[in-house]
Amino acid sequence: MTSFQWIAFVVLAVPFVLTVTLTVRRTIAPRVGLAWGLLWIAAAVLIARPELTAVLARALGIGRGTDLVFYFAILAMVFGFFSVYVRLRRIESDLTKLVRELALRSAAEPEDQRITRSERKP
Amino acid sequence: MSGAWVVVPAYNESEVLGGVVRGLVERGHRVVVVDDGSTDGTAASALASGARVLRHALNRGQGAALQTGIAYALARGAEQVVTFDSDGQHVPEDVEALLAPLQAGRADVVLGSRFIGRSEGVPPIRRMVLAAAVVFTRLASGARVTDTHNGLRAFSRTAAEKIDIRLDRMAHASEILDQIVRHGLRFEEVPVHVRYTAYSRRKGQSSLAALRILADYVVGRWMR
To answer: What is the model's pLDDT at position A118?
Structure first.
């Protein structure tokens, strides 16, 4: 084991423990927890046995193991950006609904204020 | 007073909004201004000019403001809903021309078009961008219109109830056309004036904004 591998294991242990904790507490769905858990284990396995990436790469028709890791990292990032973008749009749309609801509840009507306030609710 | 409500979305338009609202009120229209989170005296000047005012606590964009105003007008029993820009580009006299096909029962939606009307000083680049928008809209939604981005529109009550603007910013113009086609609403175009004043050109969208509007629209359609 090289020192890099030991450092990587320690670094990976943090999200792994966090994933297990959140899954046990039901903060994240069991399915999501399992997916993340498998990801951290896969990362640890590939760090322990780097030559396995070359085997996988060849099976997929990619030259080197490092290229395989590189491509998957890019795919993961694109997917990550996309999920954040989708969530952002949902939040923006929720925010608009909230702002609209507030606006509709506090409509100002010049003539109604002079006559009666009881008519203000539609 | 007719059963028509005029919805005016406004963002920092205190300079000209009072005149716009008075022009509409004087012609007997009920006006609701949606102040889209302005930081100037927009709400006060609208209220002083005789409009009802809804205030967005945060700026959410013209599409969002229109939907708020339409929801309010419908809740107050509007028989027709007209949308009208706040920057003085539209002429209050055109509202009656817009309502006529609705009242005659010929159409569910009436759209103002600056290209079958007499428009003053449409900048040449703007003319080209708008022509491209017309071609794009015909391809994307199949709506055969001559002016896709005109803020002056009129909806019958049933049409207004079906329209659900979800694109908060400027792409709502294409979204409305999509929904008109999707709900099978009968629409008609009538010529309207669009005044390109120094103020409207300074306050309005730059022609480059068309690219952002296009992106917003494409993503919105696909994520619907």
So the answer is: 42
pLDDT for B142-170, tens place per residue?
Answer: 888 888 889 999 999 999 999 999 999 88
Phi, psi of A46 (to 5 degrees): -70, -30
Residue B54 phi/psi, 5° resolution? -110, 135
Min Cα–Cα distance to chain A from B33, Å: 10
In A82-111, the residues whose Cβ lies within 8 Å of chain B are: 86, 89, 92-93, 95-96, 99-100, 102-104, 106-110
Rounded Cα distance between B161 and B165, Å, is 11
In three-state secondary structure terms, B153 is strand
Count CB neighbours of A76 within 10 A: 11
Handedness of CA B166, B171, B177, B181 (dihedral sign): negative
CA A49 to chain centroid, in Å, comes to: 28
Burial per residue of B151-165, b for 16 or more beta-carbon CB atoms within 10 angstroms, e otherwise? bbbbbbbebbebbeb
What is the mean pLDDT of the segment spanning B115-141? 80
Q: What is the ipTM of this complex?
A: 0.87
Specify the pairing of strand B30-36 against strand B52-56: parallel
Instruction: Encode pLDDT of B69-81 as tens digits.
Output: 999 999 999 999 9
CA distance B104 to A80: 53
DSSP state for residue B35 in the 8-state scheme: E
